[in-house]
Design a protein that fits this description.
This protein is α+β, with helices and mostly antiparallel strands and about 300 residues long. About 25% of the residues lie in helices and about 15% in strands.
């Protein structure tokens, strides 16, 4: 009887164990390539826990000698990278067959997701590589490609520079979308009628000014029908106005600036008129000398 009871107890225990739920072990995740190991929080089936997750590089390395010799792009683990070429000559080379000249051959595109209040400036940075904010310096090459509610300036292509120990980047050069105006430095470009705006000044070995209208170059002063203002009238004009006829006043120049081509033309006109006055005076003087010589006889 005791043996029978023992067998029944063992059988019951085996049935109970078989009906118990089985807990599966957690699956181990293996990450292939790690750049760094940031801490992040994830929710498991039981509770929240903090683990180390390596970031992944979504790059497929291609070895042209063994992987795919006919591939268009070349991504080796070392040396140069080529897109559209298997023989890149720089750290990164992008190549595409030339078009027929009717459309642009885009090799690289930078774009931002448009936001109404964002600056929307896709930009390339050329940095000295220093991670210390006090020492870092960089050039930027970018474009403001849409308007926004923060910066009211026109859409523009821009070049800027940030020096070490400076918090702000300085915009040195820009071409805006409003008539293609070019601005160098920090100056007011909100003046219509011009294409180039330069801060401080320009140093050059040569300046050539085009004259659009022949009437702005006053050679017609020497025509026979040109009427000189009598010297007595000129004297009265100078007494009343304090400047030569046709020449801009001081207030006009300080307000509107100086038109170099037009001013040079007006100065030429005054020199030509002065020459005619001298010729006329010379004739009067010669006539007077002749009359005096006749009286002495």
């Amino acid at each position: 009887m005791k043996k029978l009871m023992f067998i029944l107890a063992v059988f019951s225990t085996a049935i109970a164990v078989a009906q118990m739920p089985v807990t599966k072990p957690k699956k181990k995740v293996v990450y292939k390539t790690a750049i760094k190991k940031p801490v992040y929080t994830t929710k498991t089936a039981s509770a929240w826990s903090t683990v180390q997750k390596p970031a992944l590089r979504n790059i497929v390395y291609q070895y042209n000698d063994t992987f795919n010799k006919n591939a268009e792009n070349f991504f080796p683990s070392t040396n140069n990278v080529g897109i559209g070429t298997n023989t890149p000559q720089a750290a990164l080379e992008i190549r595409r067959n030339a078009g027929d000249g009717l459309s642009k051959n885009f090799l690289l595109q930078l774009s931002n997701t448009w936001t109404p209040k964002g600056l929307n400036e896709p930009t390339i940075m050329f940095s000295n590589g220093d991670v210390n904010p006090a020492n870092v310096s960089y050039w930027t090459l970018g474009a403001k490609i849409s308007g926004n509610e923060v910066d009211k300036n026109p859409i523009a292509f821009k070049i800027g520079f940030k020096a070490p120990n400076e918090a702000d980047e300085h915009e040195f050069f820009s071409i805006d979308s409003y008539q293609g105006r070019v601005k160098i430095g920090n100056c007011n470009a909100n003046v219509d009628g011009y294409k180039l705006y330069v801060e401080e000044g320009i140093l050059t070995e040569k300046v050539k000014v085009a004259v659009k209208n022949s009437e702005d170059w006053y050679d017609h002063v020497f025509n026979q029908d040109y009427k000189l203002m009598p010297l007595t009238d000129l004297e009265k004009y100078l007494s009343n106005n304090k400047h030569l006829p046709d020449m801009p006043t001081t207030s006009e120049v300080t307000t509107n600036g100086l038109d170099l081509g037009k001013t040079q033309g007006l100065l030429l006109k005054k020199v030509e008129e002065l020459t005619l006055y001298l010729i006329e005076l010379k004739k009067d003087l010669d006539k007077t000398k002749k009359e005096l010589a006749e009286l002495k006889k």
